[in-house]
């Protein structure tokens, strides 16, 4: 009887082990696989993606940022007729650079208050690389603005950094940006597959729940702009597709004439021809601009390329702008520079080039009006927060699994500090560039480069600060530092220029007023995040009674059975 009891216990334990082993050996499902892919793809390049998203977000207002960073530029309350502006600039250029073989005239618009002209001086050496000089012109009078204007990269730097980074060769930066975009696309698709209830979870948010709250925020931000995130990532890859996959264009054999036609599918730039050597007056530019506006609409001429001005072979190309168009495919009209006769017009391109133009325009968002650009800005800012919450979630999720959460291992600490320096530090770095714009001397040599250096010095300093401080204290201190740096910028602007917030509001200068107000709003956001981090108290997990291990339980049961058998045998012997 006692022997049967022992055998039953052993059989039960033996039968349970294969079942557990089979369960442990079961292959992970598709969602678990996608979850692992989403986690590691998002982490490995998440810091680059966060920087790309944030700088790309502010680039939707790069013209306005550049204006704010050049307060010496005059504020134009009323726009002049483009045809008259073109004529004034052309007349002025006849005195500024009469021997130049090429003028590139950028006409002002609602986002740029002055006309900018680039021209190439006559080449003194055959085969020498062509260089360009530039100048600013008052659209109301056509006179060249000679006053000192601070040298700056302005919003153009954030735009370029967004897809080619800095301190590395341009091609390397663009290839790295393409790799990040591809990883982002993989992260989006794998994230959708992983969260089967992602749309239901969009309406669920639990405050103060630690990891659950971070996951809810990450899901909500992901679903909020999911179509936008997919579009912006895919179109970002398409914009540089010819660089990533150049083999088709390299394999084709085209004549020089065919290459010119193919180039006009992607760009409206027309190279200067050969001069005839015969002097001839330039036809009125105003008439050409008006003729182009009759074809495209008022205010649609963005640029004039004047080749060989003053020569009998002069050519003038009017190029249509990208505003109000859902495609950036080039449209232009080429005129005879002497007679003003229309020689060539391009209003459409091939299907492949038009598809690229539409995808490119969707990514840049230049087709939209001010409300559309604000929509792009807000949804893109949500994408930035999506990447940021994903990085933080990685730390929050794994901290609870550490043997000693108060003393994490080196790899965990490194990721945590990189997250702090990237998310909280980048704001300080970008604000530092704006501070340098106001504090560096206007006529300082290499001033624009030192503005950029200041940004990276400030950003790097946040990493050293994060490495030397406890994680929570580093978050709080850097968020407060970012809030202070952003909030004091309007004060600094008012002290160093005559275009402070109140003065700009009175003058109706909404570029400067809007920039100052946005800086204050971002400062308030950083202060809010700092306060929430400061007040957050993680809840201690309840201590559960330790359960005996399965092997120990089986051993105890076997020992009990053996003891019972021995006791029974002893009883029989005694009897």
UniProtKB/TrEMBL annotation:
It comes from the Bacteria. Keywords: Membrane, Transmembrane, Transmembrane helix. Residues 1-28 are annotated as: Disordered. The chain crosses the membrane at residues 40-61, 175-199, 220-245, 374-396, 417-436, 448-467, 474-495, 510-531, 552-571. InterPro entries: PepSY-ass_TM. Pfam families: PepSY_TM. PANTHER family: IRON-REGULATED INNER MEMBRANE PROTEIN-RELATED (PTHR34219), PEPSY DOMAIN-CONTAINING PROTEIN (PTHR34219:SF4). This is PepSY domain-containing protein. The lineage of its organism: Bacteria, Pseudomonadati, Pseudomonadota, Betaproteobacteria, Burkholderiales.
């Amino acid at each position: 009887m006692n022997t049967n009891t022992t055998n039953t216990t052993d059989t039960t334990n033996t039968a349970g082990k294969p079942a557990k082993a089979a369960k442990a050996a079961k292959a992970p499902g598709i969602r678990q696989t996608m979850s692992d892919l989403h986690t590691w793809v998002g982490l490995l390049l998440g810091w680059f993606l966060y920087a790309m998203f944030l700088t790309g977000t502010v680039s939707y207002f790069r013209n306005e940022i550049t204006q704010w960073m050049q307060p010496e530029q005059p504020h134009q309350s009323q726009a002049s007729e483009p045809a008259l502006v073109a004529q004034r600039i052309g007349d002025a250029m006849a005195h500024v650079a009469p021997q130049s073989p090429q003028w590139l005239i950028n006409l002002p618009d609602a986002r740029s208050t002055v006309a900018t002209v680039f021209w190439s001086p006559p080449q003194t050496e055959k085969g020498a690389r062509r260089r360009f000089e530039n100048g600013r012109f008052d659209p109301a009078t056509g006179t060249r603005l000679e006053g000192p204007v601070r040298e700056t990269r302005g919003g153009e730097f954030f735009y370029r950094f967004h897809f080619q980074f800095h301190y590395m060769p341009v091609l390397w930066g663009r290839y790295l940006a393409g790799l990040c975009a591809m990883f982002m696309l993989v992260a989006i698709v794998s994230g959708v597959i992983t969260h089967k209830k992602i749309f239901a979870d969009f309406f669920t948010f639990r405050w103060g729940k630690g990891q659950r709250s971070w996951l809810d925020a990450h899901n909500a931000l992901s679903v909020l702009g999911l179509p936008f995130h997919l579009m912006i990532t895919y179109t970002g890859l398409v914009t540089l597709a010819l660089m990533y996959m150049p083999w088709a264009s390299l394999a084709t054999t085209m004549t020089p004439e065919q290459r010119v036609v193919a180039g006009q599918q992607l760009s409206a730039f027309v190279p200067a021809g050969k001069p005839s050597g015969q002097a001839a007056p330039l036809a009125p530019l105003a008439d050409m601009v008006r003729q182009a506006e009759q074809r495209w609409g008022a205010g649609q001429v963005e640029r004039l390329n004047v080749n060989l001005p003053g020569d009998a072979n002069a050519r003038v190309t009017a190029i249509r702008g990208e505003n109000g168009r859902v495609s950036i495919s080039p449209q232009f009209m080429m005129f005879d520079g002497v007679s003003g006769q229309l020689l060539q017009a391009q209003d459409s391109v091939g299907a492949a080039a038009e598809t690229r133009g539409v995808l490119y325009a969707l990514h840049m968002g230049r087709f939209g009006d001010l409300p559309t650009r604000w929509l792009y800005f807000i949804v893109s800012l949500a994408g930035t927060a999506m990447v940021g919450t994903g990085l933080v979630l990685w730390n929050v999720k794994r901290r609870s699994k550490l043997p000693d959460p108060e003393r994490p291992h080196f790899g965990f600490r490194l990721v945590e500090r990189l997250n702090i320096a990237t998310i909280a530090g980048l704001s300080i770095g970008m604000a530092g560039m704006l501070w340098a714009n106001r504090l560096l001397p206007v006529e300082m040599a290499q001033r624009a480069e030192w503005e950029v250096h200041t940004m990276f010095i400030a950003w790097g300093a946040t990493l050293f600060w994060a490495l030397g401080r406890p994680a929570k204290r580093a978050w709080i201190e850097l968020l407060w530092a970012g809030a202070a740096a952003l909030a004091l910028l309007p004060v600094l602007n008012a002290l160093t220029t005559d275009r402070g917030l109140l003065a700009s509001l009175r003058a109706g200068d909404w570029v400067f007023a809007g920039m100052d107000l946005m800086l204050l709003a971002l400062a308030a956001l950083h202060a809010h995040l700092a306060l929430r981090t400061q007040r957050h108290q993680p809840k201690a997990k309840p201590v559960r009674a330790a359960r005996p291990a399965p092997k120990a339980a089986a051993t105890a049961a076997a020992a009990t059975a053996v003891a019972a058998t021995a006791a029974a045998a002893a009883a029989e012997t005694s009897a």
